[in-house]
Specification:
Layout (H helix, E strand, L loop, with lengths): L9 E5 L7 H11 L3 E6 L1 H6 L2 H7 L4 E3 L5 H15 L3 E6 L5 H4 L9 H25 L2 E11 L13 H23 L2 E7 L13 H11 L7 H12 L10 E4 L10 H19 L1
Parallel strand pairs: 1-2, 1-4, 2-3, 4-5, 5-6, 6-7
Length: about 280
């Protein structure tokens, strides 16, 4: 149910690829809450995805931009401000890519050229976006920027590979730039650490389905869905969270602070019993 939380606000959504993506869900919810939008993604993603379909649904222009190219980012902000007739109130950074993961390289065997690209796309792109917006005075006072991250920045998930390093850097940039932007214009910058979610990008991680099942059992409230994540991000774009900044906010049903659950214990015990029966047989 819409609450008009973003009535009159204008924002840019990065990274909507298809209907499974968190950025796609967030764009729909922002539109339902009264926001005007601009959608953007890398040129290659525009060709691969279905973002034009989303643009029609939320009455938003689609502007391609390579987040590793400062000129592209500047052009995106200029065209967005021209479209809106003024400054931008909120931005969702939903950008990430690992060539090492795509090429099946283990963390102990990283191609450092690939890793540099991973960091540039997945982390430094946030700094580049914020710096360009800073120089252009593109974000309105009390604006809000949210970047999507994952708990692998704090804990080891072996198959998440160097994306864990990228997310750790992303969170650091959000904190550091959050200070400077807060002092200058009261702009708040946060990261949201979402439950493992069956998006097109997330499903590319080895063993992803098994981990989704494990996280469901480890989370007191269960895994947060993509739609619920979109709801949460809307609140961070709204005026209801004006004093929240420089935070890494876990939206994961309690997974991040749970040591073990009864479901996991019982599953382990059943496995042990099953193993003993096999040995005895």
């Amino acid at each position: 149910m819409p609450y008009n939380l973003l009535q009159g606000k204008k924002g840019i959504i990065f990274g909507a690829l298809d209907e499974k993506s968190l950025a796609w869900k967030t764009a729909l919810r922002c539109y339902e809450e009264g926001a005007q939008l601009v959608l953007t993604n890398a040129p290659v993603a525009l060709r691969m995805g279905e973002i034009n379909k989303l643009g029609e649904a939320v009455h938003a222009p689609v502007i391609g931009a390579d987040v590793t190219n400062t000129d592209d980012v500047k052009k995106l902000l200029e065209e967005s401000m021209r479209h809106f007739g003024g400054q931008i109130d909120f931005i969702l950074h939903s950008v990430g890519m690992s060539l090492n993961v795509r090429k099946g390289r283990a963390y102990t065997e990283l191609d450092y050229g690939f890793t540099q690209k991973t960091l540039d796309i997945s982390s430094l792109s946030l700094h580049r976006l914020l710096r360009t917006a800073w120089d252009m005075d593109a974000i309105s006072e009390w604006g809000s920027v949210v970047a999507l991250t994952y708990i692998a920045a704090q804990r080891v998930f072996p198959d998440y590979n160097e994306m864990a390093d990228a997310k750790a850097l992303l969170e650091s940039i959000a904190r550091s730039f959050g200070y400077h932007f807060g002092v200058k214009k009261k702009v708040r910058i946060n990261t949201v650490s979402q439950s493992p979610t069956r998006t097109t990008a997330g499903s590319g991680v080895k063993g992803f389905d098994a981990f989704v099942s494990y996280a469901e059992k480890m989370s007191p409230l269960g895994n947060a869905t993509a739609d619920q994540c979109a709801d949460y991000i809307v609140t961070l774009f709204s005026d209801l969270t004006r004093m929240v900044t420089m935070q890494n906010l876990f939206h994961d049903g309690g997974f991040s602070f749970t040591g073990v659950t009864q479901q996991v214990v019982e599953q382990m015990m059943q496995s042990e019993v099953g193993g003993e029966e096999v040995q005895e047989g």
